[in-house]
Amino acid sequence: MEKKIIFGTLGGTVAGMIVAGVIFMGLLGGMTEQWMKDYASCLKEMNFAAGIAGSLVLSFFTAVVLHKFGVSTFKGGAIAGTWITFLIVLWFAIWNASTFTAYTWEWLPIDVIGNTLSGAVGGGVIGWIFGKVK
Fold first, then answer.
1. Residue spans of alpha helices (H) in the chain
2. Rounded distance, CA 113 to CA 55, Å?
3. SS3 105
């Protein structure tokens, strides 16, 4: 069990971060850069180590839940990862949009969709790893 959780967490973190990078720095890079310029006065440079730590926490949570659900396929992990990430990110996005000026209601759906896709792939990788690791 511990080996599955550890490998699933690491695999989910790497996969999720790659997808998030492609979405937010690649496909939406111009939009993200403009947002950062518009709200530069209240933003600071992201600490990449903290970003990795946060991704590890979410992947660990997802791995534990998927293990409890008995998920062992990419498809099963992707479906569960989608729901887990969607609900967590939606809650956090609503809270942010209602609290912080820099997090706008216009950005909320983009953020939720991008992060949910990242969580779906991360969850899929976790499920796939669970099917391979005995």
1. 2-21, 29-38, 48-69, 74-99, 107-132
2. 17
3. coil
Please name which of 102, 70, 89 lies closest in space to residue 23, comparing C-alpha atoms. Answer: 89
The amino acid that residue 100 corresponds to is: F
Residues in the chain, overall count:
134
Cβ-contact 4, 130 below 8 angstroms: yes
Question: What are the pLDDT digits (tens) for 101-125?
Answer: 888 899 999 999 999 999 999 999 9
Report how far residue 6's alpha carbon sits from residue 63's, in angstroms, rounded to the nearest whole number: 8
Tell me the pTM.
0.90
Alpha-carbon radius of gyration of the chain = 15
